[in-house]
From TrEMBL:
<dbReference type="InterPro" id="IPR057326">
    <property type="entry name" value="KR_dom"/>
</dbReference>
<dbReference type="InterPro" id="IPR020904">
    <property type="entry name" value="Sc_DH/Rdtase_CS"/>
</dbReference>
<dbReference type="GO" id="GO:0004316">
    <property type="term" value="F:3-oxoacyl-[acyl-carrier-protein] reductase (NADPH) activity"/>
</dbReference>
<keyword id="KW-0560">Oxidoreductase</keyword>
<comment type="similarity">
    <text>Belongs to the short-chain dehydrogenases/reductases (SDR) family.</text>
</comment>
<dbReference type="InterPro" id="IPR036291">
    <property type="entry name" value="NAD(P)-bd_dom_sf"/>
</dbReference>
<feature type="domain" description="Ketoreductase">
    <location>
        <begin position="9"/>
        <end position="192"/>
    </location>
</feature>
<protein>
    <submittedName>
        <fullName>3-oxoacyl-ACP reductase FabG</fullName>
        <ecNumber>1.1.1.100</ecNumber>
    </submittedName>
</protein>
<dbReference type="Pfam" id="PF13561">
    <property type="entry name" value="adh_short_C2"/>
</dbReference>
<dbReference type="GO" id="GO:0030497">
    <property type="term" value="P:fatty acid elongation"/>
</dbReference>
<dbReference type="InterPro" id="IPR002347">
    <property type="entry name" value="SDR_fam"/>
</dbReference>
Length: 248
């Protein structure tokens, strides 16, 4: 299904080469947007651009979200290639799971840096542009892990909880500039990482979901579309759980 909810809009999506980022990009393009994908893996990002329809609708940029300079270059590409910046999706992330006893400082620092500092870099750089034009929508991807905490994820859970606080603080700062800032907390979503789980663990996790199934990346993309578009025009500082009812 295609439409024009985002016709004429330009969106930047970090971590856009695969997974949730690519699913969001697909949905945005289907609804009329042009997208700029930022990812560390430039070859994969270029492949993603071709899948989306090529240079007319998408562009690829190598981007380390921890770097303010890289984020600036990413946003500048959106402006120079497609003429503006209307939507920013801070999606890039990594996992370095381990129990507290075995987790190294490097594993902790890496996850905090990519998720928390990376989101902050995207948020502050995009908002600088959007506040001048008095409009824009920023969507930060958190996780249900940031609400309930997960064993083996003290780093990831802390970072994703931090994104919630950051979203709310930024929403208050940016509201009078006409810029909305919201977040999504996905639950158990089908991905290469989750499908690699042992069958017993997979079945245990699915059993915790009241709707009785795993979520699809497209279902996160639909919520991102809602937050990016006009139907959520009176929403800011909101955190939407997309979990099938898990951990309600």
């Amino acid at each position: 299904m295609s439409g024009n909810i985002l016709s004429g809009k330009t969106a930047v999506i970090t971590g856009g080469a695969q997974g949730l980022g690519f699913a969001i990009a697909e949905r945005f393009v289907a609804e009329g947007a042009r997208v700029v994908l930022g990812d560390l893996n430039l070859d994969a990002t270029k492949e993603a651009v071709e899948k989306l329809g090529g240079a007319d609708v998408a562009a690829a940029v190598k981007c380390d979200v921890v770097s303010g300079d890289d984020i600036e270059a990413l946003l500048a590409t959106a402006q120079s290639t497609f003429g503006g910046l209307d939507i920013m999706v801070n999606n890039a992330g990594i996992t370095r799971d381990a129990t507290m006893r075995t987790m190294t400082e490097e594993q902790f620092d890496q996850v905090i840096s990519v998720h928390l500092k990376g989101t902050w870099q995207g948020l502050r750089k995009a908002s600088t542009i959007m506040r001048e034009q008095k409009s824009g929508a920023i969507i930060n991807i958190s996780s249900i892990s940031g609400k309930v905490g997960m064993v083996g994820q003290t780093n990831y859970s802390a970072a994703k909880a931090g994104i919630v606080g950051m979203t709310k603080a930024a929403a208050k700062e940016m509201a009078h500039h006409g810029v909305r800032v919201n977040a999504i907390q996905p639950g158990l979503i089908r991905s290469a990482m989750t499908e690699a789980l042992p069958e017993r663990i997979w079945n245990e996790k699915v059993a915790q979901v009241p709707l009785g199934r795993v979520g699809e990346p497209s279902e996160i993309a639909s919520v991102a579309l809602f937050l990016a578009g006009p139907d959520s025009s009176y929403m800011t500082g909101t955190v939407l759980e997309v979990t099938g009812g898990r951990f309600i």
